[in-house]
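EI: anyone free to look at a 142-residue chain?
SC: sure, send it
EI:
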Amino acid sequence: MANSAQCQNCTQRACQDNCAFHYPNSHERIAEAVFAGGACHFTANDIHGRLESDRANISLEAVNDTLLRLTKRGDLRQLPQFSSQAYYDTNTATHAHIYDEHSGELVDVPDDFSDAIIRHLAELLGDAGALDLIIHRRRHPY
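SC: here you go
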């Protein structure tokens, strides 16, 4: 094995499925983790956590790099920063979201309602081409 000297976990062939040094393309494994759940919202830390739970030795830096590549390619959509972490969406169509600050949950607004909101905002603004709508739900402290 050409890269076995870099691997701290093994020198055995059995490690190949779980060790990034042996995995032929870490980017492919990250992409599989991204799209395994269908349409969803996630952060780089979410994907990294999934990979760690699968015992994949892939760095957070590699996850961020892959997410950037997938976004540039148009396979993912990076949502505007509204929390301490960047969120990504596998649904690249224009649609609205609701972010609950208390739970940290990000959900899609139902399509019919989302389409109506975006259509009305486009009329008001004159263009919906680059419209990202995230409704930020805050809970009052009182």
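EI: Residues 1-24 have pLDDT under 50 and may be disordered.
SC: 👍
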